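The records we work with from here on pair a chain with its fold. Taken together, the tokens spell out the fold as the letters spell out the chain. The record below shows the convention in full.
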Amino acid sequence: MLANLHAALNPDAAESSADADATLGPAFRVRSRALVSPVGLTGLAGIGKTQIAVEYAYRYVDVYEGGVLWLDGARPLEDGLAAVGRALLHESHDEPRSALVRLTWDYLRQHPDALVILDNLTNPTVLKTPMDGYGVFAGLPCRMLFTTWQRDLGPFRALEVAPLEEESALQLLLHRAERPEGLGKDHRDHVAAKTICQLLGGMPLALEISGSFLRAAGEVTLADFAERLRDEGRLPTVMEEGEALPPIDQPVIHAGLKTAFDAQYKILDDETAKHLLRAAGQVPGMDPILADRLGLLTGVSNLRPQGHPSPLASALQCLYDASLAREYEGDCVWMHPLVHEFAAHLTLPDERPDFCRRCVANLADAFEDLARLEEQCARRGIERLQEDLLVGLSLLSVPGHEDAELDRRLQSLLRVMSRECNTLQSWRPEEQPAALAQQLHYRATCLRLHDLAARAAARLNGMGEPWLALRWAAGRMLPALERTVAAHLGPVQAVAVLPGQWQAVSGADDGKLKLWNLGTGMPGPSLGDIGRPVTAMVAARQGGRVVAGDSAGALRVWDRSASGTDLMAGEQFGELSTRVWSRLTQASSSSTV
């Protein structure tokens, strides 16, 4: 018996529900009194929790001799019980609401072999709250399953529903679009289909809507739709096409994604968490967003009062508990791409310039406090601080967001940090507590950044450590020099800049190739070890390939475009009778670029 379940079984449920049998079967098919305690399916709106519950109800209705009873968890429990009572009567008697509630309560008390499913339960604690005249709902002997956005379920067991893996996401999208040929890795649609799945973060609801649209609009290619998601936005595109779908193409339980996210956002009772989410939406890029960066932009402290978590950690935990942050570990916060886009729209267009300027001002204020700058640098490293400043500058670069004074303050800090990055990479405050302020004072004085030099001097005076007050500077100061960076163990012989990517690859006598971020001077991982000194290198103008030559005359090609994010290991494709020499750019024998 299925009572009060009005959703039909989705023919695509096997792909879109992340396998309900694997998710719920072990917890429910075992006839054990220990498993009577309610079980909650948690996860982001649109991730497929309801779909899994519907799939499970249809698949295992015969296992539960007392039947499967479906309640709308977003409404008061009494309303859900009354709705089930009407379904149990199988007649349209005009029974009082209280009589219907009593009927269902007594039925569940007498049928421990029944399963109750509460969908979209806003607050799981209501299951432990006594109902007037009845008792505690969770105390009923029947099995219980509920779906919720909350992650912290207290005494109840939680089963988290994750986004679909790439293969499952591809199958769902292409099956729904009736373009199964795209599953073939050699097919022209395969790469575009993978891109769509990545842009939508493996979210079943978004993939179903996109697949249904592509099926109806047969002339739209997968590549064109991927570009539309990039250009017009993922969330607006999915919302627009979801609302336009005919009823036959609607997912099992379809609610507008923005409506679902709005409801999820409203359950947050922490204003600081809401503020962090709004700021996260303005930060370019997203996987992951750095927690400390959010704290700096919002002015939320990461300092822990004795015996308490920091305000920043508490607010981020609220986002995680509400499933608005996919993961939260250390300094990293992962958000689903559609949540990130939703967060961006929480700040209205006419409010966005002032909001972003306030965020940037918080960042500038924090870094001009030299004690706080030292704490951040000691814990996170000078490269992360440069990236923070670049994010702040990017917020000011949006048309309409400009602020000359804020730009000047951030640029001054970035110039000094960039020039001293190589020196401060290995700074240990416990050994040289005054070194950071000393180097900033020196460099700010040389660059005639008098405000910053004065702040550094005040910090040094307050530390009680000996320091050098620069009166005049000798030596060649190169205004065009941005930074000096080092990571090789031998002289650098070749450098190639990757066109349009703000990255460079260097090769040295240590035989290693290293990737560099030219915006921060931050070295990436070693891309490979040729085993012989690298003597020449050149980057293709298009396609992401780099060709390297070594002292033994071998040539190797390294292809970035093949993997999309990182240079792939080089294949030797040629060999000369002598070593390869090419003077491509200035390098030095001190292992620096």
Observations:
- The two ends are 73 Å apart (CA to CA).
- The first helix runs from residue 13 to 16.
